[in-house]
Amino acid sequence: MNIGSIKQNDAGIFVGRLATLTIAMTIALREVHSANPKAPKYEVLALSASRAWVQVGALFELASNSTGEAFLNGKIEDPSLAAPLYVSAFRQEDGSYNVVWSRPTRRRDLASEMAPKADEGLPPLPGADEPAPSGQGAEAGLGQSSADHAFAG
Hints:
Elements: E1 2-8, E2 14-19, E3 24-31, E4 42-47, E5 53-63, E6 70-76, E7 85-91, E8 97-102, H1 107-114
Antiparallel strand pairs: 1-2, 1-8, 2-3, 3-4, 4-5, 5-6, 6-7, 7-8
């Protein structure tokens, strides 16, 4: 979902606005000059209520696996946010960027996606077709009780 855009101003600085139901911020990108190939391409700065620029994130340059097209990816963090805002910026024909947000996939979601499905032709688990042992607690899957039955209430 598109939440904003960033355009280069007359001074050559990328400036834009991001807006969601709970966030409205003016941002600017400051290029990072580093010899480290893993360094971000840009620092993300936000204009504070006191009209000062505050660093709130970083964007890394990545390439699409399918097309090889470059895009920016990173997150915006601030104590006023309940959680980091994960964003990607895609360059447009006019040189501006469209900014979209994404919710990261939780590990639990990944595990359920990777778990084998029942219809994948796997054999049943051993003992799955055997009836549960009868007795106190067995119906709840607790097995046989070794307790003296005189205390059963």
